[in-house]
Design brief:
The chain is of the alpha/beta class. It has four helices and six strands. Strands 3-2-4-1-5-6 form a six-stranded mixed β-sheet, with helices on both faces.
Length: 165
């Protein structure tokens, strides 16, 4: 059984004057990325590989997981094409994977769409009506190979959100 961890980047700072791609995490984002990495650790959900947008806020979010599980640099891929990519691009990249447990880290609305697309059941939204809130992690699993991913092919195990911890 393969597992997919879909993680939205943590809360970013808006008032830095940086271009969007370079925006860092806000203090809350710094805290939440660590909270979620610890959540993964407490549930023994260490990824074998990480596929991440090249945006600074996404890289910094994923780095907490990479550090927590001491993931080898060769098993981490920061991809410029995943910065503001749509769900179809994410799906295309994932279909080439070989990991048993893959973490993808990026942006909305694509990650909302990806979780909704892959999940066999309707995902539960947060109290504010959002699905993938900042730093949220959706845990999905499926039988088969990555190349077989398609609409509704995954069991949605849970969506963990830092504000619900």
């Amino acid at each position: 059984m393969a597992e997919l961890l879909v993680m939205r980047h943590a809360k970013s700072a808006w008032d830095t004057g940086e271009p969007d791609h370079q925006r860092p995490l806000a203090p809350r984002g710094e805290r939440d990325r660590v909270t979620m990495a610890r959540w993964l650790e407490s549930h023994r959900l260490g990824p074998d590989r990480v596929l991440c947008s090249s945006a600074v806020r996404a890289q910094d979010t994923a780095q907490a997981v990479i550090d927590t599980f001491a993931i080898e640099r060769t098993d981490v891929h920061f991809d410029d094409d995943l910065y503001h990519a749509g769900a179809s691009t994410w799906l295309s990249r994932m279909r080439d994977e070989r990991a048993r447990r893959l973490l993808v880290c990026g942006h909305n609305p694509a990650l909302d769409q990806l979780v909704e697309l892959l999940s066999a059941t309707a995902p539960k939204r947060a109290a504010n009506g959002k699905l993938m809130t900042t730093a949220a992690i959706a845990h999905l699993r499926f039988d088969g190979e990555w190349r077989d991913l398609q609409t509704g092919s995954c069991e949605l195990v849970t969506i963990a959100r830092p504000r619900e911890m």
